[in-house]
Amino acid sequence: MKGRLPNSAASVSTEQRQLRLLALPALALYLLFVVGPILAAGVLSLFHWDGITPPRFAGAANYLRAFLADPIFARSFLNNSLYVLITLVVEVGFGLLFAWALQARLPGAGLWRALFFSPMVLSLVVVGLLWSFVLNPDAGLLNVTLRGLGLDALARPWLGDDRSALATVSLVSGWRYAGFYMALFAAGLSRIPPEVLEAGRLDGASEATLFRRITLPFLAPVTAIAVLLCITGGFQSFDLFFVMTDGQPYHSTEIPTTWMIKKAFNRQSLGYGSALGVLLTLFVAAVGIWSRRLGSRPE
Amino acid sequence: MTARAQRTLLLLIVAGVALVMAAPLAWLLLGSLRTDTEILSAPFALPERWRWDQWSQAWTEGELGRASLNSLLVTGMTVVATVILGAAAAYPLSRTSVVRQATGPVFALYLLGLIVPAQAAVVPTFLLLRTLRLLDTPWALILPNTAWSLPLAVVVFAGFFRGQSREPEEAARLDGCGPLQLFWRIAFPLARPAVGVVSVVTGLAVWNEFLFALLFVHGPENRTLPLALLAFSSAHTVDYGLTFAALSMMSLPLLIAYAFVQRTLIEGSAGVFA
Which of A72, A64, A34 is nearest to A46 (CA)? Predict the structure, then answer.
């Protein structure tokens, strides 16, 4: 007989072994290229190392330097927090508005949805380069259009001025990601039973009231996820900043990731760069855990 | 205001926003076929003469053909590896009656990769690749990209396998199939929707991946498209038409492909999280 005996301990352990074997290749690759490097970054952060000469033990020196002797690192966290605050409005906020507007079954809803989402398929390098051209002070589409409309006073060097550079990059980020949050909210909206809204309409409630009283409460779990993704994702940004400004002007668009890469790879401070990476990881993990608590707290 | 007027107003606003959002892309595509003087004098006019020569010049000078092949190779290998390894890793985790003890910790370990910023791991990864003598080869991108794509793949596949009907597997089990055959012959072939979502989401992310490419591949032989585009545009900062041609050439195929898979992509990328 070829079948196995259901309760035989021997065959269960064969099954176990085979299933473990199945999971092994993925786990090995993951341990080698994700978990290992993360742990190694923790170890490296305790050394001074240029990658060539022998490493010297540094203890907590790299961390002390990050907190006490590197004002630009602190500045980069502040910049990144401002970026996240702006993107919460222009990515999550606009994403919600788009999803809500398209919920009204407008003519061409599928086309508008596809259009709003389309920047999501472009590489951030293309997005950054394209917008650097759009924002060019002399020949860029934005300033040319503003001048064409007689609004010369509004035309400015968007990325060259340290007062506007960070906000400008954040808005470009909004252009790229609003469609993603629209998709997220659209999935949430489709789960609201239409009868509930219909009943509200029959009772004479305005669309604004329905939105506030029914739609928003229904969307609370999705909103919690969207905010979490926007915050933790926002602190992992790199591409757009690197391509558009790389921290310029005067570090006004410096964020922890760009600063860390500069330290580790341009200055060959592998230990210090790793310490900055560890601090960023701890920060993102803390934010993640904190906002999950907030999201699951009963109201 | 009547309901009809409200809807018309809403439609106008939506169309207006869509138009403003599409403007930079239209400017890019039109500009790729016009001279610099034309772009500067009237942003949105049609070309006086269609400058396809800008496309061919950008293609040759930017070595975009080689970069495209590199991107195809890296993306293709990563997607195939992520789908197969991710599904194989998720299957035991979703048949918990068998591997009960290990499920929780292993799943948590994969979730770690979703929270930790990849930037924090690039220095050790660089050193690892250097030790393995893989820097400046396609493997320097395929291996880390696959590893970092696994968490999402495992989450998606585990969710799918858990919801899968067990009947086909029970039947095959009675016919004497072991767990490896159950996975490869029954569960995996039935998981096509999950394969679709993981392929599209991973494929797009890897095609556009920049950080690993920037740090692990330096020579022009192995660099992928994002890097080649950046190099080309920094060499031609004042050459609008030419750079626009390079950017268009690389975005247009993606936008066309997007038209076909937009439903999977939009609903898939939302479904992963919500």
Answer: A64
